[in-house]
């Protein structure tokens, strides 16, 4: 009698120290780079207070957690099916990171914070709004699918576990960092309004880090390593 193969979630595995350090740097830049989720939880903090901002942030982080888990599982399945396809995805990811770097330099970053938002949302609605911003954004899953493979080798027997670890690790880094942003929302809002140069500096930092990772990957693969 035929039986279906058992499906098991990969056991989390910690990457090498140099890989983890590089991923930490990339995450730090991503966390401070303004986006729709940051604009949302900072705006809600300015409009309704810190608790509202934290609730909105919790929703946004939940969306990212779901996306990163789905990306890790999907990439694990791809790796199990074809290491070659996984390597091809890495090249696609490198191209995508270069495109993100170009976009950051081409378009000035901006963060609109509405301190006079007329509608006060309930806490469940705040959480749902934060969740929806990331969960319903196809760019988030596209980013994780093309970003995570940059830090895992296709021939690594524990690649699936490392992908899972990196997804969880991103949330562990983002949660306290973004919470501090909520607590300092008024000061951050004032700084960004008073100094557009800060926003432009973040754009250049983001572009530099994304471009460096993409070029490092391309040259390493081209050299046969």
Automatic annotation (TrEMBL):
It comes from Blastochloris tepida. The keyword Transmembrane helix applies. It is a multi-pass membrane protein. InterPro entries: LeuE-type (IPR001123). The chain crosses the membrane at residues 20-42, 54-82, 88-105, 126-151, 163-185, 197-218. Keywords: Cell membrane, Membrane, Transmembrane, Transmembrane helix. It is found in: Cell membrane. GO terms for molecular function: amino acid transmembrane transporter activity. This is Amino acid transporter. Its main location: membrane.
């Amino acid at each position: 009698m035929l039986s279906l193969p058992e499906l098991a979630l990969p056991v989390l595995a910690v990457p090498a120290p140099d890989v983890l350090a590089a991923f930490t740097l990339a995450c730090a830049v991503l966390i401070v780079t303004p986006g729709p989720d940051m604009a949302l939880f900072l705006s809600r903090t300015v409009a309704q207070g810190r608790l509202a901002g934290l609730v909105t942030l919790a929703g946004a982080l939940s969306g990212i957690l779901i996306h990163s888990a789905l990306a890790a599982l999907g990439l694990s399945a791809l790796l199990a099916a074809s290491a070659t396809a996984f390597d091809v995805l890495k090249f696609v990811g490198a191209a995508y990171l270069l495109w993100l770097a170009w976009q950051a330099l081409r378009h000035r970053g901006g963060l609109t914070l509405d301190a006079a938002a007329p509608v006060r949302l309930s806490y469940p609605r705040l959480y749902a709004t934060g969740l929806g911003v990331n969960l319903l954004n196809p760019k988030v899953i596209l980013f994780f699918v093309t970003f995570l493979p940059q830090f895992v080798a296709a021939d690594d027997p524990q690649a699936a576990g490392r992908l899972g670890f990196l997804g969880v690790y991103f949330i562990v880094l983002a949660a306290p960092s973004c919470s501090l942003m909520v607590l300092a929302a008024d000061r951050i809002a004032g700084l960004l309004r008073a100094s557009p140069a800060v926003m432009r500096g973040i754009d250049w930092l983001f572009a530099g880090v994304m471009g460096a990772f993409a070029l490092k990957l391309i040259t390493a693969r081209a050299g046969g390593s």
